[in-house]
Amino acid sequence: MNIFRLAGDLSHLAAIIVLLLKIWKTRSCAGISGKSQILFALVFTTRYLDLFTNFISPYNTVMKMIYLGCAYATVYLIYMKFKATYDGNHDTFRAEFLVVPVGGLAFLVNHEFSPLEILWTFSIYLESVAILPQLFMISKTGEAETITTHYLFALGMYRALYLINWIWRYYFENFFDLIAIVAGCVQTILYCDFFYLYITKVLQGKKLSLPA
Amino acid sequence: TAEMPSKDEL
Questions:
Q1: What is d(CA A202, CA A184) in angstroms, rounded to the nearest whole number?
Q2: Which ipTM value was assigned to this complex?
Q3: What sections of the protein cross the membrane (chain A) (predicted)?
Q4: A31: which residues sit within 8 A by CB, 6+ positions away?
Q5: CA-based nearest residue to A145, from A11, A10, A25
Q6: What is the DSSP letter of B6?
Q7: Does position B1 have pLDDT exceeding 70, yes or no?
Q8: Are the Cβ atoms of A120 and B5 closer than 8 angstroms?
Q9: Residues 6 or more apart from A46 whose CB is under 8 A from it?
Q10: Chain B: residue whose CA lies nearest to A56
Q11: Which residues sit opposite A65 in a β-bridge?
């Protein structure tokens, strides 16, 4: 565990909690892509199956359970409790266009051809693109609430910090995982455009809105 | 440098 990895995990946790609190406090999930949240729940579910097979550390187990619990709570709030506020008309990204190719790729490119390993690989690939329905929704409506942009920023920071963590681990622990690194780079690149808008608009106190 | 799965990461 290094400082970048810890900061990345905490940034991820902050993102998840900011989103949950936003929905809970405003009693509304307007502007939030339910599809992205379902994809994230699927990511955590397929990745953390090792909770049942091997123990790594109390930190590892507790964080996995929190991520899983929060992901399902978020999906529940969007599709059940505050369903009336869900903006389904704008959440039109075809999630199967992500899940199917990513599933195929996980079968073809993995560390080991075993069910758990393929599911883990699937989760890594899926996570890298799971935010696309949310970004698509923002580009479609042309705007995002400020709190939603904080959520996205924390989520993007988590990935960027993990990249630094991998560079660290490569130099100091001789450790690298090519699948995670390539997927992590793709995921971070997807946020670059958003980072630019966040820094030039939201941090200047303006609402994030895109030119028509 | 050995490549190995990063299962300790979240």
A1: 25
A2: 0.81
A3: 62-80, 119-139, 151-172, 178-199
A4: A87, A137, A138, A141, A144, A145, A148
A5: A25
A6: -
A7: no
A8: yes
A9: A119, A120, A122, A123, A126
A10: B8
A11: none
Query: Which residue, chain included where needed, has tokens 């900061």?
Result: A7
Residues of chain A with pLDDT under 50: none
| Closest residue in B to A124 (Cα–Cα) | B10
Q: Tokens 């560079």 — which residue?
A: A167
| Cα A180 → chain centroid | 14
- Spatial contact of A111 and A117, defined as CB atoms under 8 Å apart: yes
| Rounded-to-integer distance, Cα A10 and Cα A177, Å | 21
- pLDDT reported for residue A131: 97
Tell me which of A44, A60, A122, A163 to substitute to probe the interface with B (most B C-beta atoms closer than 10 Å).
A60
- Given this model, what pLDDT does residue B2 score? 45
Is residue A2 within 8 Å of A173, Cβ to Cβ?
no
Distance CA A56, CA A75 (A): 28
